[in-house]
Amino acid sequence: MTVTLLREFYRESSPVCATLAHMQKLTIFTDGGARGNPGPSAIGVVIYDEQHNEMSALSETIGIATNNVAEYKAVARALEHVASLVDDTKAVKITLNLDSQLVERQLIGAYKVKDATLKLHCAEVQALMEQYSSVEFVHVKRELNQVADKLVNQALDAM
Known about the structure:
Layout lengths: L1 H12 L1 H7 L2 E11 L4 E10 L5 E12 L1 H19 L6 E7 L2 H8 L7 H14 L4 E6 L6 H12 L2
Parallel strand pairs: 1-4, 4-5
Antiparallel strand pairs: 1-2, 2-3
């Protein structure tokens, strides 16, 4: 009984315990694509809550870009958008799934970012990551990223 009372005391009085008790876990799928490389480009983002319910989706054109730039912009846009959906970004753990192995490997530091333009986009994503409790990147096969891919193609088709 004493342990239970202490847990309740800490849960109610400690911001850290309160945050841990209310930690939100989100799963995000992103994709970016260009028709031509570079060419007209778009991004697709799908955000799911812990129960795998879709919270939000984005389908946006981004102008002329390469495929890799579009992939980075999709990740950045996803992180920006989550911040608009939640009350406390520090209470959010994100698993971000993308089908670009290059971008995933660069973001986790396994590959060096050599291209100057991609360095800027990588730095932008890294800065956006700082506002969350944690961000994990996972490379997924294209067939597991079909919803985000569809959103990219919808935006491109609407151009």
